[in-house]
Amino acid sequence: MTSIYQGRLKTSQLRALVAIAEYGKFGEAALQLEISQSGISHAISTLEDELGVSLLVRHHQHTRCTPVGKEIVQQARQILQLLEQIEEKANQAKGLNGGIVRVASFRSAATYLLPKAIAQFRSKFPDISIRLTEHNDYKDVEQMLYSNDADIGLTYLPTTDKLETWEIYRDEYLVLLPPTFKSSESQLTWEQLCSYPLIMLPESHSCCARIHTHCRSFGQKLNVILTTNEDSTQVNMVAQGLGATIMPRLAAEPIPDNIKVCGLPIPLTRVIGVAVLANALQTPAVFAFLETFQQVKFAPSRNSKN
Questions:
Q1: 259/185 same-domain check
Q2: Side-chain half-sphere exposure of 157, counting CA atoms within 13 A
């Protein structure tokens, strides 16, 4: 008889087995574990192959454990609990059972990127507090880092060599057009864009300055008829037919259904990154938050819609 090589048993397989035992369905278990249904099926099949026994009886509407599966589920729960206790001991030794992480971010990244990272971090380190400050401009985020008022910042890349950074997301700039705009094209020409009345942030705002610089680099001048300080105001004014606007997708979300979305004549993307002050002494809590951020998978920016 071939013995089981213990190194082949994975905690992911045990978690999959326990989840299916708890929820009774592969789909619900996959949802709880935040993996695909094919991924959880593969985990169970490889576990059964390795153990050489059937652990589950699969029905159309429900899945139940075999007699030996019930016993192994109980032992799997004990193993996972022991692993949590080991991790807890290690966190205590590393000073991860308390403290605070100060995070600064510009508003759209705080709204659509940070929540997922914070949720994963809090699930692992519930005793560490997060202090979040939101800013209208990424330059204010970087100033928070320079003045030591924040440990971690979300900013645009590239930045200065005073900061150590990691790319986390690429966000495309879009043209939002009012319901009255008639065109089946998904991308505007320069002539269309520059002739249309635009509602924009002030050019002094870094995000808007990038747009103007991009257009001028191709010899184009935008027709700005109105400026406002809030992304949501721009979107609502476009929805009311007062003009068009150009903004990153994250800043535009949620985009009303009656607004037409087009791409720029020449695409423009902002690269968003996590930043810390270079060569600064960071606490274990800050390092743990950075590690969590590097593990989070953000959904890619969606393609423009008509």
A1: yes
A2: 17
With residue 30 as reference, give the H or E element that holds it. Answer: helix 26-33
Bond into 256 cis (ω within 30): no
Q: Are residue 201 and residue 266 in the same domain, yes or no?
A: yes
- Which domain covers residue 106, as residue numbers? 100-168+279-295
The mean per-residue pLDDT over the stretch 138-156 comes to: 95
CA 246 to chain centre: 22
Model confidence pLDDT, tens digit, residues 230-246:
999 999 999 999 999 99
Q: Residue 294: which of 129, 159, 121, 74 has the closest Cα? A: 121
Residue 2 CB partners (closer than 8 Å, separation 6+): none
Residue 1: its pLDDT value, please? 43
Q: Which distant-in-sequence residues (6+ apart) come within 8 Å of 18 by Cβ?
A: 73, 76, 77, 80
Mean pLDDT of the chain: 88
- Our CA angle for 167, 252, 255, nearest 5°, is 130
Span 206-230, pLDDT tens digits:
899 999 999 999 999 999 999 999 9
Residues in a beta bridge with 176 = 245, 261
Give the pLDDT confidence score for residue 35 in this predicted structure.
86
Name residues whose C-beta falls within 8 Å of residue 63's C-beta, 6 or more positions apart in sequence: 20, 24, 25, 26, 56, 57
Any idea what the CATH number is for the domain that residue 201 is in? 3.40.190.10
Tell me the DSSP string of 83-151: HHHHHHHHHHHHT-SS-EEEEEEEHHHHHHTHHHHHHHHHHH-TTSEEEEEEESSHHHHHHHHHTTS-S
